[in-house]
Amino acid sequence: MEPELAASSTAPATSRKKRGEGYTRRDEILLAAKTLFLEEGYDAATIRKIADRVGVSAPALYLYFQDKEAIMLALCDQTFGRLIERISRIEKTVSDPLERICRFGDAYARFGLEHPDEYRLVFIGHNIPEAVRKVGHRMPIDDPTRPGVGGALVFSRLVTMLSQLEASGVKLNYPPDTCAELCWMGIHGVVAALIMKPDFPWSNRETLIQGMQDIVINGILSRA
After folding, report:
1. Which structural domain, as residue segments, surrounds residue 29?
2. What is the model's pTM?
3. How far is CA 3 from CA 48, 55, 57, in A?
């Protein structure tokens, strides 16, 4: 625990939520933390500041999260959870393996551009705790409730789609996991550029997204 956190927050203590209402306070904490992380940076935002923003004492906040790292991991999983919902809809409605992958890339790009704050927090910068950053998308997914596993779950879905494409008879230039990394790196580059430089005189956004998808798909498929 940070030394400064041993003292109580300067915010007035509030009563605990009634039974069954805990999720509301948890969401309030996540929203306050996300705002502070974006405003001040992950390192500068402390538990005390987050508690003050919510209007609770630091000890009260610890009833929901053991430290700042746990909050950041919960924000990551919350963001990836929303993306997984979109991916699940694609898996249920699109049967062609190649079309699934294209739709995955499009859904990823749309998600990032529709949620720029979350994207900056999770994908741009150095906000991810080191313990998770070192394993990244290769974190074991045997326990989908493990904190910070959301990104690995999304990546595994893309690898599965690429494996299904390969099983259908389409040859890949690289192993499915490498192809998945290339897909992500390409689309992430476009999304990050559009988010970080919104006033730059880019050409048509739709064309850029589709063009990068075409480049990536042409690069990972074998024409032999």
Report:
1. 22-65
2. 0.83
3. 11, 21, 16
Annotate 127-147 with DSSP letters as a single string.
-S-HHHHTTGGGS--S-TTST
92 domain residue, yes or no: yes
What's 137's domain CATH number?
1.10.357.10
Q: How many CA atoms lie within 13 A of 212 on its CB side?
A: 23
Domain count for the chain, please give it.
2
Would you say the C-alpha torsion 189, 36, 111, 123 has a positive or negative sign? positive
Residues 172 and 221: beta-carbon distance below 8 Å: yes
pLDDT digits (tens, 9 = 90+) for 118-153: 999 888 877 777 777 788 888 999 999 998 899 999
Angstrom CA distances, 69 to 39, 41, 130, 147, 152, stand at 17, 13, 9, 10, 18
Task: Kindly report the CATH number assigned to the domain that includes residue 55.
Answer: 1.10.10.60
- What gap in Å lies between CA 64 and CA 139, rounded to an integer? 24
The model's confidence at residue 224, banded by pLDDT at 50, 70 and 90, is low
